[in-house]
Amino acid sequence: MQTKKGSIFEAFINILVGYGINLGAQIIIFPMFGIHIPLSSNIWIGLMFTFISLARSYLIRRMFNRRENKRLAKNGTRYWATVVQTG
User: Fold this and answer.
1) Given its phi and psi angles, is residue 81 left (phi above 0), alpha (psi -120 to 50 degrees) or beta?
2) DSSP string covering 19-48
3) DSSP 81
4) What span, in angstroms and rounded, lies between the C-alpha atoms of 30 and 44?
5) Which residues 6+ apart lie within 8 Å of 81 measured at CB?
6) What is the mean pLDDT of residues 11-28?
7) How does the average pLDDT of the chain come out, rounded?
8) At 14, is the secondary structure helix, strand, or coil?
9) Is the pTM of this model over 0.85?
């Protein structure tokens, strides 16, 4: 299980790496389709999609954690009890 802070940190690192890869891909791929825009526009487009992706990753992670917490509660197990028992 991750804390909310851990979830946002993981999502941020994931998105940061993806931003670099996708910015490079935009610079290469856009001209192949006749899209010629300045680097500053590529950066802003990438940032907009990055913020959308960060929010998506965080919300999906929290959704899965909530589902796992409900499953553990249904079985009468608390998260911290599971951590202590397993490790």
Assistant:
1) alpha
2) HHHHHHHHHHHHHHTT----HHHHHHHHHH
3) H
4) 14
5) none
6) 88
7) 83
8) helix
9) no
Yes or no: say if 82 and 72 are a contact pair by the CB < 8 Å rule: yes
Task: Specify whether the backbone of 76 is left (phi greater than 0), alpha (psi in -120 to 50) or beta.
Answer: left
User: Given pLDDT bands bounded at 50, 70 and 90, which one contains residue 79?
Assistant: low
Contact, 72 vs 78, CB < 8 A?
A: yes
Q: Using alpha carbons, select from 42, 45, 4, 6 the residue that is nearest to residue 24.
A: 42
User: Quick one: pLDDT band at residue 15, thresholds 50, 70, 90?
Assistant: confident
- Band (pLDDT 50/70/90 cuts) for residue 27 is very high
Interatomic CA distance for residues 21 and 4, integer angstroms: 26
